[in-house]
Amino acid sequence: MKGMFTKHYDGVAVLDGFILDVVDGAMNRITGPSGRGKTTLLRLVAGLEPDEADCADFKGRTVSMLFQEDRLAMTMGMVSNLRHALGRDVGLDAILSMLNELGLEDHDKRVDECSGGMRRRIALARALLAHSELLILDEPFTGLDPGSRRLACEAIVRHQDGRTVLVVTHEDDDEVLLPIARTIAL
Ligand SMILES: Nc1ncnc2c1ncn2[C@@H]1O[C@H](COP(=O)(O)OP(=O)(O)OP(=O)(O)O)[C@@H](O)[C@H]1O
Ligand SMILES: [Mg+2]
Fold it and tell me: Considering the entire predicted model, what is its pTM?
């Protein structure tokens, strides 16, 4: 899939005709320094920003997105969060099994009682479980220790299901943990 993306904020171009060329059905890594426009690009791909883009290939695709922020319901339990977000499309067994894979066995814990790294994995579980053609992960490993990061990588690989993945990461060794088909630098 290929598209050309432009985005202005207050008349200033954050992206100016940036050509995003991804490998379909594979893992594509997006890198770049802070403030360069990675999140903006992902939001454009997901159709969350007013359209300045020539991106027909990406249009009309179903998208599952892990935002840079966790965006969880803080006073609900981890299972309730996922059930609420995913609705009837995803069964309880799949939710529990995903949480276990990510090292989150304490299913009744409320999100506001969870650590930052646990919250990040709950948000990742939600993105992985949602059915979609495109899987967009904006810095999925924020706040994760090496063991949790390895579990997160294994879960991403296991649940990719042939989807085209766009993942923003800063660490070069993610290429060891994830089968990255292409790295795209902003
Ligand atoms: N809603 C907005 N209104 C105005 N400017 C914005 C808005 N969102 C982003 N920007 C600006 O666009 C630029 C790119 O931001 P973006 O969040 O896409 O960067 P990023 O590469 O994801 O950075 P980071 O690695 O810190 O997450 C920044 O200069 C930011 O200030
Ligand atoms: Mg960002």
Answer: 0.95
Residue 43: predicted pLDDT:
95
Query: For residue 67, which ligand has an atom nearest its CA?
Result: 2
The closest alpha carbon to 114, from 91, 98, 68, 123, belongs to 123
**Which residue shows structure tokens 């599952």?**
64
The dihedrals phi and psi of 85, each to the nearest 5 degrees, come to -75, -35
Half-sphere exposure of 142 (CA within 13 A, CB side): 17
Phi, psi of 48 (to 5 degrees): -95, -5
Nearest bound ligand to the CA of residue 50: 1
Ordered by start, the domain boundaries in the chain are 2-185
**Which CATH class, in words, describes the domain spanning 2-185?**
alpha beta
Cα of 91 to ligand 2 centre, how many Å?
31
